From TrEMBL:
It comes from Marinomonas colpomeniae. The chain crosses the membrane at residues 18-37, 49-70, 82-103, 115-140, 152-174, 180-200, 221-242, 262-281, 288-309, 315-341, 353-372, 378-397. Residues 1-400 form the Major facilitator superfamily (MFS) profile domain. It comes from the Bacteria. Coiled coil: none annotated. InterPro entries: MFS, MFS_dom, MFS_trans_sf. This is MFS transporter. Keywords: Membrane, Transmembrane, Transmembrane helix.
Amino acid sequence: MITPDNYISLPERLSRGLLLFCLAAVGIGQSFIFTSLPPIGREIGLADVRISTLITAGAATFVVAAFFWGGIINRIGRIRSVIIGMSCYAVTIGLTGVVLHGALARDLSAEQTYYLVFVLRMVFALGIAGILPSVQTFLIAHTDIKHRSATIAKIGASFSIGMILGPACASLLSGLGLTAPFYIIAFLAGCAAILVMFFVKDKKHVRQLEKPPAINWFKEPVMPFLGMSTLVILSITGVQQIMAFLIQDRFHLDVSEATKQVGYAMMTMSCFSILVQMILVPRFQLGVITLIVAGTSIGVSAQLAFMFLDSYVGVLFAMGLFGTGVGFLFPGIVTAQTLLVKDDQQSRLASMNASMQGLGAALGPVTLASLYQIGQLVPFLALMSGLLFILAIFSYCKSKLGYTF
């Protein structure tokens, strides 16, 4: 079992570090494309709508693929699943760079480029959809219940770090060439796959050759918490979407200044979320009840700050509060899920959770942007209601249904 960090053996530390590095790399692969693809797509003659469909296709494929990875992980093992996913990541990102380079050199038409990249994005999503559930189930299997929330928090923080680093890597590496980020990030993913292959061993996996009984997700006690996962990710991506609108409208900024101020706001939210998940939750070994109650309470306070603090400093304060709330809430919800299912159901649970999070990520921007069109404060009222709903459902499950955490 994994005990506090001071007592973890060196091979165990290395295994955990490599797997968390894989999650950070997945975050980079998911986010750098938002910075790299639009300017290249315009350069080769793709319309903005078609560029957006490339990203949407990958997101939709991820939602569907993640649902099915649970059974695959049970059959082939957690480490093999990570290796396959990271290898698929490396190959598809590298080939995407090759295709885009050919398009920039006018060796490929815009139409040919669009369909080739479309297929590569779908294959990329098929592969990486298995990485998060594989890593999560591995770490849970090698962690005792007392330290589970700390482990889940580090999983969320690692992915968040990657999401921050992705655009930064794209911006810095593009100085070497427009397609340079694709090759370098592909190399990074390939190295991660090789390192996992040689240094990470999973002695606790029991291969399931026979398909286990199907899980009825509508009757399993974990279903309310899967819905909570969707709402939390929907909130995060939704706030990220409307923050540019809010800052530009509230402070009457031009596009350049608004972009800069939005960047600071996003960084504030991410830094507070990572701080909570990497330091506070592991340090104090917070339990599910504390995490969910603290997360929803701080999240509600953040929505009130968005509504009533009109200065830019107020917006930064609200973003910091929101990041803090998410930093508590995310590991609390996922830890609760893992405590409500049996050990042989963990991989299916993790894959379903990844799928639900992908659904939340897809719905968040369009949902909150639509609410913003009704009124500037409407999205924050909706988010506050959603957070209070999460707290109410959690309280009901605990008190009326007898859920124990």
